[in-house]
Amino acid sequence: MHEMSLAIDILRIIEDAAGERGFRRVRTVILEIGELAAVEPEAIRFCFSSVSEGTLADGARLQVVQVAGQGLCFNCHQAVPLAALYDPCPACGGYPVNPTGGTEMRVRELEVE
User: Fold this and answer.
1) 32, 105 Cβ separation under 8 angstroms
2) Is there a contact between 60 and 52 (Cβ–Cβ < 8 Å)?
3) Less Cβ crowding at N or C end of the chain, within 10 Å?
4) Residues 54-64: what's their mean pLDDT?
């Protein structure tokens, strides 16, 4: 489950930010996850809860904001919504569709004390 390593990386980002900005506790982590990022929101919540025990993020709420998948069709040259990697273009049915959005995962915001 790669969500565990992602949760560890999220905690490192939080700890680095705490070192730079001097906060002592995190109440909420707002995380953006693209629909095409192959990250399960419930799995990342579970893993984050586990890795954050005993840290400044212990008990923090992990709020997941889904980012829609987007792509550019090489066949019809349109920017289109993309539900899954390697799907055909919803406009023309052609291939390939190059993903242009919704593949990312990032910590967008922290609510801290």
Assistant:
1) yes
2) yes
3) C
4) 97
